[in-house]
Amino acid sequence: MTTAPYVLELGVGALMLVVFAVGVLGRRPVGAIATAGVLLLAAAALALKPSGPALNGMFVQDGLAIFAKRVFLAATFIGFLSGLGSPDRALVRRSTEYHLLLLGSLLGMLVLASARDIIVLFVAFELMSIPLYVLTGFAKREPEPIEAALKFFLVGSVSSAIMAYGLSFVYGATGSTSLAAIARAPASPLLTLGLIAALAGFAFKIAAFPFHMWVPDAYEAGPTSFVAWLSVAPKAAGFIALFRVYFEGVGDRAAVWAPAAAALATVTMLAGNLMALPQTNTKRMLAYSGIAQIGYMLVGLAAASASGTAMILFYLVAYVFANMGAFLVVEAVARAEGSEATSAFRGLAQRSPLLALAMLLFLLSLGGIPFVAGFWAKLYVFWAAAERGLYWLVLVGAVLTVVALFYYLLVARSMYIEAPVRTGRVPVTPALALSLLLCVLGVVALGVYPKGVVMAALRVASPLF
Amino acid sequence: MRPPYLSLITWMPFVGALLIMFTARRSPLAVRLIGVVTTGISAALSLYLYVTYDREAALTETGFQFYERVALVPPLGINYELGVDGISLLMVLLTSIIIFAGVFASWTIATRSQEFYALLLALVTGVYGVFVSLDLFVFFLFYELAVLPMYLLIGIWGSSGEIRPRGIFAWAYRETGVGTKEYAAMKLTLYLLFGSAFILVGIFALYVAAGTASFSFLDLSSATFDPMLQRWVFLAFYVGFGILAGIWPLHTWSPDGHASAPTAVSMLHAGVLMKLGAYGVVRLGMGLLPDGAADLAWLVGGIACINVVYGALSAMAQRDLKYVIAYSSVSHMGLVMLGAATLTEAGLNGSVFQMFAHGVMTGLFFALVGLVYEKAHSREIFRMGGFGRVMPGIATAFTVGGLSSIGLPGTSGFVAEILTFMGAWRSEFRWWLVPAVVGTFLTAVYILRVAKQIFWGPPSPHFHHLEDARGPEWVALVILVGVLVVFGFVPGLALAPVDTATVPLLSRILEP
To answer: Best label site of A235, A343, A358, B391, fewest CB within 10 Å?
Structure first.
């Protein structure tokens, strides 16, 4: 069958049409349909087998692409599920818009994961990014979301422009848009310059340090179930694109990028962790902590090896569950308390012990504590870096996890040690509870038995080198 | 087939924690009984192992006894591998004594006692695990398990200091919350996790450098490492474990943490966890990196000397009873590290014996301070007086502990200190003896001062209504005092097995 490689992309396209049609007719069940559709597609992705290059090698459904697509679809499913039955007025009223935009961005990611051609890559990148700007400013009658969306859009456009400029150099140096051909091309100053310029674009998308300014504002302003998704899925997509452009097929020359990645990792970990310290709003705290998490993934990138790449993939999976989970708890608490401040969590352990326990697990996972997913994630990226002799980077990263634990533990302190201000349980909608449960299961299962995912990640990452 | 004794000892408290979480809702007595039974089983088993430990076998073939091994992640060389030698066996026994006494000492805890006992028992599993695991990776996992519950234990059930800071920096203390339990809990957790970062890097470095794709202590100890690498990794282990052992200047978490923690946690932390740091330096640092240990002994010993004197001087300056005991731990941990740094048989035996003796002694002190606080509602030394009349049992126990702390013959402290002094005298740096002796002298000053003020001074009319220890509390005191005296009179009980482990360890360091 010739459509087999694109089945997921076609599926998302079809789902968008259905959502649109239902939305035009009457807007009640749009969310449920979109959620069910994504679940179906995720199931299809699980059954998918790698196949060879298609469209003259521009599109490839290899193991890496399938791995990434499963992560995107799982994240989108959790994101959609958590928004079902949300009392957020804007989300209810403009449900069709919300789901269409998000699916559009998802389509961009799916294509991006398979792109092996710089034109396809760039188009997919923009398809992924543009709906994000709109969704950030979703609450269009309030000033903060508009400001955040504008900031996001301006910084995003500039970095896209730089990336396009860099990619034009790459084309000029190699005479081809195919990444396979570019990888084989002899090294030249122009090619290196082009790739460095393109790196700026990727760094913006994954929110590495000097390109991170949009993150806190966008996270604070956007609807939380969208932000939970925004904090994980586009970043995962950005990393997949990085692997495609910088690692795939270049063999030993991948090591050229190690010093740049190590430097980026160091500043990103430092900046993210230090800037997260003074935050009193949990969404902003999670935004900065997310920047730091990207820094840890970049440690794996600095290893510039198959194991480093695989460990980033594992890290991304762990990060999806932990970070989305943390945002969703914030969503539940913020709905009940009307505040996203850390103080809104006071005494949560006595009001809703299970919700507090879930949050504790997510925070410990983000902090890298044994028996939850994040521990193995950090351990494995450090391991990959240690294999390459980057002990100093491991030490910097390991010491900074202590800084990170400080701000994570501040939330734990609010929940467990301080006395509650109000009494009564924090209400959680069934859909939100279910998505939280999924996240908890993910974090704990990966923490207790990481081997399956690690092996899968190693399998898909090794053909790149 | 021999039952897996070490696993039973290690996981029994954890089973207790689970039972408490899931079965004993709303029944405080059941919670305590589960605690007593599970830690009691562990204690009985560790006593049994201690008695049946085969010294002859340990002397003829180097080896760990009661060995267990289950493959966990074979491709990476991670195994669940347990075993004990003379040193770790003594530490396991110490842990059992302290936690068994600790369960009794915290009998009267009132708020959220179910969670308290569950966390405490989970923590103990981590401590046992560190002492018995031979796989460095599993070792690290247990280490983290031993550190983390501390945050909640201190944060929720701890007590904030009652003595307000004064002077020009008072505002800084107020702003940061110095002296409060939240501050102490956070400081302790972050310090110890900071240390664990160094340990992790050290373990990785050894794993990669050995190239055997194994985390097993046995495999790594038969590998030879480059001297330069040895030095760096030893330094990493020394800093990482040293933070837990309270080395100067990274010790400041310890007084704050121990003073703020609830009684059983202080006992466990000062009594066992700080020893865990020293144990890590001896086991991983000296055991795996003989050249690094030999090269850096001057550093370890020099800093230990500062610890001894500085800790004792700080203890003299305190007005809060719990801080006195906490700083005395810093001082005594200096003696532990000093004994190890001498690289002599006497010194290292003294060091290990000091770990045991000081563990029991400081456990006793913290149990007593907890009792005094609970009855008199004060920890401020100069507000209390003449308690000897109303609580003779507690006063006697405190005096015995104090005499052991000073190192009076007939107590465990004497054996430990005399061995350390002998080691220092025979070591390369003879002058280490001077700070060690000065530290002992200062210990006598602050211990006798406290004992006189609180217990043996003139009775105060404010405190007539106070009572002596009761029921379960007696159990804790009797066990701890008994151990101190028995091991003081018959030090061979502990030294015989320890010797079988220290001699081979030293021979690797001294003979290149």
So the answer is: A343
Query: Contact, B407 vs B418, CB < 8 A?
Result: yes
What does DSSP assign to residue B409? Answer: T
Task: For residues A401 and A393, give the distance between their C-alpha atoms in angstroms, rounded to a whole number.
Answer: 12
**For residue A1, what pLDDT is reported?**
45
Hey, how many other C-beta atoms are within 10 angstroms of the C-beta on A257? 21
Mean local confidence (pLDDT), A286-309: 88
Q: How many residues are there in chain B?
A: 512
As a dihedral over the C-alpha atoms of residue B461, residue B462, residue B465, residue B468, rounded to 10 degrees, the angle is -90
Query: Which of A343, A390, A405, A446 to mutate to test binding with chain B, by most B CBs within 10 Å of its CB?
Result: A405
Q: How far apart are the first and last CA of chain A?
A: 29
C-alpha B418/C-alpha A78 separation (Å) is 65
Reading phi first (left if > 0) and then psi (alpha if -120 to 50, else beta), residue A389 is in left
Gap between the Cα atoms of A430 and A426, Å rounded: 13
Q: How many CB atoms lie within 10 A of CB A175?
A: 9
Average pLDDT, integer, range B335-361: 87
For chain B, positions 191-220, list CB contacts with chain A under 8 A: 193-194, 197-198, 200-201, 204-205, 207-208
Q: Please state the ipTM of this predicted complex.
A: 0.70
Question: What is d(CA B36, CA B46) in angstroms, rounded to the nearest whole number?
Answer: 15
Which residues lie across from A60 on neighbouring strands? A53
- Given an 8 Å threshold on Cβ–Cβ distance, is B205 in contact with A391? yes
Q: What is the DSSP letter of B81?
A: E
Sign of CA dihedral B205, B206, B210, B216: negative
Rounded to whole angstroms, how far apart are CA atoms A264 and B166? Answer: 45
What is the CB neighbour count within 10 angstroms for residue B33? 15
Which residue pairs, CB below 8 angstroms and at least 24 apart, start in B22-28? B24/B114, B25/B114, B28/B113, B28/B114
Give the whole-angstrom CA distance, residue A440 versus residue A453. 16
User: Is the CB of A387 inside 8 Å of chain B's CB atoms?
Assistant: yes
For testing the chain B interface, which of A380, A417, A459 should be mutated: the one with the most B CBs within 10 Å? A417
Cα–Cα distance for residue pair A239/A300, rounded to 1 Å: 11
DSSP 8-state symbol, B216: B
Using CB atoms, pick whichever of B155, B194, B204 lies closest to residue A382: B204
- Which chain B residues are within 8 Å of A412, Cβ to Cβ? 151-152
> From CA B353, how far away is CA B408, in angstroms rounded?
15
Alpha helices in B148-251 (DSSP H): 149-157, 170-176, 181-210, 217-222, 227-245
Query: Which two structure tokens, joined as six digits, stand for A252?
Result: 């030993």
Q: Compute the distance between CA of residue A140 and CA of residue B110 in angstroms, rounded to an integer.
A: 52
Measure the CA–CA gap between B94 and B88, rounded to whole angstroms.
Answer: 10
> Which residue type, as a one-letter code, is found at position B226?
D
Q: Vertex A346, ends A342 and A347: CA angle to 5°?
A: 150
Across the strands, what pairs with B65? B84
Q: What pLDDT score was predicted for residue B9?
A: 85
For chain A, the helix, strand and coil percentages under 3-state DSSP, each to the nearest 5: 80, 0, 20
CB B127 within 8 A of CB B150: no
The candidate with the shortest Cα–Cα distance to B159, out of B322, B3, B37, is B322
β-pair type (B65-73, B78-84): antiparallel
> Can you tell me the distance from the alpha carbon of B235 to that of B226, in angstroms, rounded to the nearest whole number?
14
Task: Identify whether the C-beta of residue A197 lies closer than 8 Å to the C-beta of residue A168.
Answer: no
CA torsion sign for B414, B420, B422, B424 is: negative
Does residue B65 surpass a pLDDT of 80? Answer: no
- In angstroms, the CA A12 to CA A107 distance is 6
Answer yes or no: are the C-beta atoms of A231 and A290 closer than 8 Å: yes
pLDDT classification of A426: cutoffs 50, 70, 90: confident
Give pLDDT tens digits for A221-253: 888 888 889 888 888 998 898 888 888 777 677
